[in-house]
Design goal:
Layout: H1 4-12, E1 16-21, H2 26-37, E2 41-47, H3 49-59, E3 69-73, H4 77-89, E4 95-98, H5 103-110, E5 124-130, E6 138-141, H6 151-167, E7 174-177, H7 189-202, E8 210-211, H8 217-221, H9 223-228, E9 241-243, H10 247-259, E10 264-270, E11 276-277, H11 285-299
Helix pairs in contact: 1-11, 2-11, 4-5
Length: 301
């Protein structure tokens, strides 16, 4: 499966609007330009109006006067974040996208009790990878939001990832709670949580997916590794979603797939009123476009 398919899927859904906070960013505007060329979405660009217009004029003159793009002036980054979040809250936009501002600034607006986008569940980072040599997407969660989630938080993180999987066409995703070993060890909390999540799934507390764990990374993604260890499971070797035990594991896995495996990725923050495209300022325009397509597919649900 290719991430390009998400762009196709998003373009076939009802047209959505994306609110971009602090849009004065070359990579963000490149993603906006690519999206505009294929009529993927409409955009509300919040930020320094003069700077945004200058960037568009020099790099993307085709966006000048574009009917699907509206620039809204904001005096500073915090105001841009607040205005973009309020646009989503008021249903004037369906997706929130981070531009050239610190993650903390946009999250502060998202979590604001008066106008924010919280729904009462855990917000979590969901990354969908296209890995060379693999015939399916690999979803990694959580690599950026939750530092050391407890069992209840892990259950909510799984539910968020399952919703994203459903949105991109994986009807019954296989979820592997990752640990260092594939057996329950009372001294290793990750294995205890994995076993509990498996039971919760079997009893219907977590639905729409199949969970089995604990599983080490090798026997979660490689059928050969699972067979060598004698693991018989619907999930082992065929996992769609890798639930990591802590943010360090997710962050290292995320970056290893990109830098060592040349994987492509799209990622969103799930669990809010609307999907949030919270990419790094170091991410490419292509990655931002994939993330945008993933968010639009998710917003369609």
């Amino acid at each position: 499966m290719k991430l390009d398919s998400l762009i196709t899927k998003a373009s076939q859904n009802n047209r959505k609007t994306v609110a971009v906070a602090a849009a004065e960013d070359f990579e963000v505007l490149e993603a906006v330009a690519q999206a505009a060329r294929i009529n993927l979405a409409d955009f509300l660009l919040f930020g320094n109006e003069e700077e945004i217009n200058k960037m568009i004029s020099s790099e993307h003159p085709e966006l000048q006067g574009h009917t699907g793009i509206k620039i809204i002036s904001a005096p500073n980054n915090n105001s841009a974040a607040e205005m973009a979040v309020k646009a989503v809250k008021a249903n004037e936009a369906n997706v929130l996208m981070k531009g050239n501002l610190p993650t903390a600034s946009i999250l502060k607006a998202v979590l604001n009790k008066e106008y924010g986008l919280r729904t009462g569940v855990v917000l979590s980072h969901v990354a969908v990878f296209e890995i060379p040599g693999y015939d399916r997407f690999t979803i990694v969660t959580d690599a950026a939001m939750n530092i050391a989630p407890d069992l209840d938080q892990k259950a909510q993180i799984v539910k968020n990832a399952v919703q994203i999987a459903h949105a991109i066409g994986i009807e019954m995703p296989k979820v592997a709670p990752i640990a260092a070993v594939e057996v329950v060890n009372p001294a290793m909390q990750a294995t205890l949580d994995a076993a509990a999540l498996t039971v919760m799934n079997n009893r219907g507390q977590i639905s729409g997916c199949k969970i089995d764990g604990p599983l080490a990374l090798d026997n979660a993604v490689s059928q050969l590794a699972a067979e060598h260890k004698g693991i018989q499971s619907e999930v082992a070797g065929k996992a769609d979603i890798l639930l990591v035990p802590a943010i360090e594991v997710g962050n290292v896995l995320y970056k290893s797939l990109i830098y060592f495996a040349n994987a492509k990725v799209g990622a969103v923050i799930a669990g809010a009123k609307a999907p949030i495209v919270l990419t790094s300022r170091a991410d490419t325009a292509e990655s931002k476009l994939f993330s945008l397509a993933l968010a639009l597919c998710s917003a369609a649900k």
